[in-house]
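Case study: Acyl-CoA dehydrogenase family protein.
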Amino acid sequence: MDFAPSEEQRAIFDLAREFGAEHIAPHARTWEAEGTIPRTLWPELGALGFGGLYVRESSGGSGLSRLDATLVFEALSMACPSVAAFLSIHNMCAKMIDAFGSEEMRARVLPEALSMQTVLSYCLTEPGSGSDAAALKTRAVRGAEGWALTGTKAFISGGGYSDAYVVMARSGAAGPKGISAFLVEDGRPGLSFGGLEDKMGWRAQPTRQVQFDNCAIPAANLLGEEGHGFRYAMAGLDGGRLNIAACSLGAAQAALDATLSYMGERQAFGQSLDRFQALQFRLADMEIELQAARIFLRQAAWKLDRGATDATRFCAMAKAFVTETGSKVADACLQLHGGYGYLADYGIEKIVRDLRVHQILEGTNEIMRLIVARQLLEARG
Ligand SMILES: Cc1cc2nc3c(=O)[nH]c(=O)nc-3n(C[C@H](O)[C@H](O)[C@H](O)COP(=O)(O)OP(=O)(O)OC[C@H]3O[C@@H](n4cnc5c(N)ncnc54)[C@H](O)[C@@H]3O)c2cc1C
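Here is what the predicted structure looks like once written out:
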């Protein structure tokens, strides 16, 4: 067993961290205020190979392992978790197209998606179904020319902003096996968007409903096989959960780093905050918790890379543990900044707001516990 990152892994982390520090962190607050991320950022990330981190090299991707990819998200989140998480969603979609798309679809969609000339969004959730995603109602009807989609997707990150949407819709009977996945490019007739959602965090990335009104797409836009869409959507989620956990980890680490500096500067009762042993112990607790979270996340990623039979359970456990630890640490950092932690200028309150949603999406942390408990009970027999 080897816990040390390889030289290549260190280089990947450093590359992402340096890019984030130079090209994302200085603008993160402005992008949050504007509610959008400039389109010009994405091709820069694409040029680093971050548009298809675990897309196969034979398809033009970077062919990295899941573990390597978590290093990228951890490092970028130190600059802005909202930007990093958006990149994770794009990568999840690109991987779905690589893994399940036809050769024709891969050739048509991937080159621009991997260079991030185009960005992709993932459309599973609906107004009436979130955790119970297999209950989705958006219909896909096959016609002579292709498919027509009708329905509404809710909470779509990049809705009205992205160039194409990977959409799970019902082409058959009730239940998961009646669901297929489709690619819907922006501009298709019958595709429209709801208003911009006003959110607690992740404010830099636009979230909107994505609406389909008899939206016509060609037959070639069916992703993979009919009736397999739910399986494809779930296949993307194990890795997505690791990425989101990595985003919590990186941002919480950035909050801890900032807190360490702040406590050396801020004076109270004639000494700097870092002289109070009660506060030193809180720093130690945060360090212990983040290190435990980091090891747990890497182990889950390692299992996913090896196709371990318990990988899904470990991804779920890591997602719940790391996102909750990240939020707890970020909140403690805010407290240690006193009133200044509550002010936007110090950057901590944004981290607290951005990380909160990581306990809700890519499967809520209750659903993560459901996955873990179900498997424990099954194993007990
Ligand atoms: C900012 C943001 C961005 C998002 N981006 C996307 C996106 O890009 N694409 C996309 O498809 N979706 C996206 N989502 C949707 C997200 O995945 C869902 O919100 C999430 O899956 C939860 O679904 P829900 O909101 O319908 O909550 P519900 O499913 O209604 O759950 C409500 C509560 O009940 C709990 N609960 C539900 N069922 C059970 C159960 N069986 N046992 C125990 N507890 C249960 C939940 O954990 C939760 O606490 C996004 C959401 C947000 C907030």
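For the exam, be able to explain this: The mean pLDDT is 97.
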